[in-house]
Design brief:
By secondary structure, the chain is α+β, with helices and mostly antiparallel strands. It folds into two domains: 2-39; 45-174, no CATH class. Helix content is 37%, strand content 31%. The chain has five helices and nine strands; from the N terminus they run ααββββαβββαββα. The protein has helices at 2-12, 14-39, 89-98, 138-145, 166-174; strands spanning 45-51, 57-63, 69-78, 81-82, 104-108, 116-117, 122-130, 148-155, 161-165. Strands 3, 4, 6, 8 and 9 form a five-stranded antiparallel sheet that branches. A four-stranded antiparallel sheet has the order 1-2-7-5, covered by helices on one side. A hairpin with a 5-residue loop joins strand 1 (45-51) and strand 2 (57-63). The chain starts with a helix and ends with a helix.
């Protein structure tokens, strides 16, 4: 009796069932498309170290994702203390603290709030060249650089929040 009632109800309401099924499938497809679209424009900031032919040790930053990174904040810390100032002042303060006993020249890139870093864009975040008679060893440079921390908060164009933290990235590489 129950199966007979179900088939009777289904034949009477077939158009409604088809319409509701189509509506559910549409919402499901829209949800999948939105997830795919978010992934296809996801930014991913990362850094790496290199040296230039003219002797600069460089920390580069690149947006290795497939979408632009909307920079929300950029901070440099040394020994847990935030370096303050405008534009490149925090970079200079950081280097002056870490390498106080070595003469050097440097240049860098400023990632200001609301800067939109496009996919595959790269910048020389900090580049330093030691200029005096007394030069630090590579091991000493590596040890001193660990005192610095770079933290960048950024968003995708879908306003999904991400963060790059050099300390967290270093821990990931060790494990």
């Amino acid at each position: 009796m129950c199966i007979g009632y179900f088939w009777s109800w289904l034949s009477t309401n077939a158009t409604n069932v088809i319409a509701l099924s189509a509506l559910a499938a549409t919402f499901w497809q829209a949800s999948i498309s939105r997830k795919h679209n978010k992934l296809s424009v996801k930014p991913y900031l990362t850094t790496w170290n290199t040296t230039t032919p003219d002797g600069y040790a460089v920390v580069k930053i690149i947006n290795n994702g497939v979408g632009p990174a909307h920079i929300k904040s950029f901070s440099i810390f040394v020994d847990g203390q935030k370096m303050t100032g405008e534009a490149l002042e925090p970079h200079g303060k950081c280097l002056s603290i870490i390498f106080a006993d070595f003469p050097f020249s440097w240049y860098g890139a400023y990632l200001g709030v609301d800067y939109m870093m496009s996919s595959n864009e790269q910048k020389d975040l900090i580049a330093i060249k030691f200029t005096g008679e007394k030069l630090p060893s590579n091991l000493e440079i590596e040890h001193r650089v660990k005192r610095a921390q770079i933290v960048i908060d950024y968003e995708s164009i879908y306003e999904e929040r991400f963060s790059y933290d050099s300390e967290q990235e270093a821990k990931k590489q060790l494990s």
